[in-house]
Specification:
This protein is α/β, with parallel strands linked by helices. The protein has a single domain (3-298), classed as Rossmann fold (3-Layer(aba) Sandwich), CATH 3.40.50. It is built from 11 helices and 12 strands. Strands 1, 2, 3, 4, 5, 6, 7, 8, 9, 10, 11 and 12 form a 12-stranded mixed beta sheet that branches.
């Protein structure tokens, strides 16, 4: 089944070229189907790239999903055209009275700053608090995961001396979780961050479960017992060349950056990167959509009781 997106969103032609089932809004309104209502709070600088990456994974599912793209109103985006934001995005204020089946909060390259230094931190806190009563399941990605764990459960963020940068092997920590259904015993995930959360802090929070981790990259996948909140510190949505583009960008800026680990063949940046995470990414997003969202929310979102929806802290 398709994802439903605006007719002329740039991601549309890219995804259709990859045989991802995309349905435009004009056709969707003629169908007697209640699609999942999903919001994406896109905090990344290159929003068009990020929205395409995430929509690609959401579209690889038998579930029909209607997408609302959000950007923080309290931050001026310098890397995405204002016309794109005006045409395809909205703000939290315009949807705060609505209910959503699911929401994704992306990462952002601000992990070295204290949370309170983020220009949109107050707005993000308001949104994360709102998700507890208006969104059935929220997936937080990379720094979005660190922010969510800190805001909801006081799990600290640790800034690192060296960037966690590359494609790392991971192992399952909890068997039987629906989010991990179909995962191999070892699976690969890209990471790109200067901060981390730690397993001993996760273990102190009774509502949280550590689902997967890496010896090199640390904590990766954390969730509440009921799947209402999911925190993934990696970037399973990344394209094959995303890490290369980040590496080339940092080199051009004169930053001290090491080669991404386990990415270029023989560590030769002239070679084509080896993609090892595509199947994991597909499973993670389809499992989240199916087991945390679709199987749990009612056909009529109006049936959801705000009071019963509120998550514990």
């Amino acid at each position: 089944m398709p994802i439903i997106i605006p007719d002329n969103l740039p991601a549309s032609s890219i995804l259709q070229g990859e045989n991802i089932f995309v349905m435009h809004e004009k056709r969707a309104v003629q169908q007697d189907i209640r699609p999942l209502r999903l919001a994406i709070l896109n905090l990344m600088p290159l929003k068009i790239i990020t929205e395409t990456q995430i929509l690609r994974l959401l579209g690889n599912s038998p579930l029909q999903a209607e997408i609302t793209l959000l950007h923080p109103e309290s931050h001026d985006s310098k890397n995405t055209p204002a016309s794109h934001l005006d045409n395809f995005y909205t703000t939290f204020a315009s949807v705060s009275g609505q209910m959503f089946d699911g929401m994704i909060i992306t990462g952002a390259p601000v992990e070295q700053l204290d949370f309170e230094e983020w220009t949109y931190w107050d707005e993000l806190c308001e949104i994360m608090d709102w998700t507890r009563s208006h969104v059935f399941s929220t997936m937080h990605i990379c720094v979005g995961a660190l922010a969510g764990l800190y805001y909801h459960y006081d799990v600290p963020k640790y800034v690192l001396d060296r960037k966690v940068f590359g494609v790392f092997p991971h192992r399952i920590c909890k068997l039987g979780s629906p989010l991990l259904r179909g995962f191999d015993d070892e699976f690969f995930v890209p990471h790109s961050r200067y901060a981390e959360t730690r397993r001993e802090d996760i273990a102190k929070v009774p509502y949280l479960e550590l689902l997967a981790e890496s010896d090199q990259a640390g904590v990766y996948l954390v969730a509440t017992h009921d799947g209402r909140q999911v925190f993934a510190t990696g970037h399973s949505e990344y394209d094959p060349l995303t890490l290369k583009e980040e590496y080339d960008r940092d080199l051009a800026k004169g930053d001290s950056i090491e080669l991404p680990v386990n990415y270029f063949p023989d560590d030769d940046p002239a070679g084509a990167p080896r993609v090892k995470w595509r199947s994991h990414a597909s499973l993670l997003f389809s499992n989240w959509l199916n087991y945390c969202v679709y199987q749990e929310t009612p056909y009529d979102l109006k049936e959801l009781d705000h009071g019963n929806m509120v998550l514990p802290r």
